[in-house]
Amino acid sequence: MTYVVTENCIKCKYMDCVEVCPVDCFYEGENMLVIHPDECIDCGVCEPECPAEAIKPDTEPGLEQWLKINADLAKSWPNITQKKDAPADAKSFDGQPGKYDKYFSANPGEGD
Ligand code: SF4
Ligand code: SF4
């Protein structure tokens, strides 16, 4: 099992999650973060830290698409271990439906 970053992270990217991960397994894209499923130790401490409630255990049904996105992009995006400022407009995107279709980007972020 692993924890997975899901749709509501897109364009919110608050990054509270990276500060608490004991194994530094978050990776940064342009618009969102992902968790490397082979590095995550399933401790669960990041889940309640996410203001956007975007982190879920992969035992929840219906997360297959997100598990694949996390696994694929964690291989090419840079590692991130320190919180940066969230995008200035993050709040206006929190909870918006259909963010994947409108805003998903496979481009990497900057990392640490
Ligand atoms: S805290 Fe949540 S919204 Fe912020 S980067 Fe982490 S997963 Fe994304
Ligand atoms: S569950 Fe634990 S190990 Fe996995 S990403 Fe969250 S904080 Fe890191």
Number of helices: 4
Shape label: globular
Radius of gyration: 12 Å
CATH architecture annotation? 2-Layer Sandwich
Helix share, percent = 10-25%
Strand order in space, largest sheet: 1-4
Number of strands: 4
Bound compounds, each kind once, are: iron/sulfur cluster
| Largest sheet report | 2 strands, antiparallel
Derived structural class: alpha+beta
Uncertain spans: none
GO molecular function: 3 iron, 4 sulfur cluster binding; 4 iron, 4 sulfur cluster binding; electron transfer activity; metal ion binding
Pfam family, one: DUF3470
Protein name: Ferredoxin
Cofactor: [4Fe-4S] cluster; [3Fe-4S] cluster
What can be said about this structure in brief?
Residues 1-30, 31-60 form the 4Fe-4S ferredoxin-type domain. It is built from four helices and four strands, in the order E-H-E-E-E-H-H-H. The longest helix has 10 residues, at 64-73.
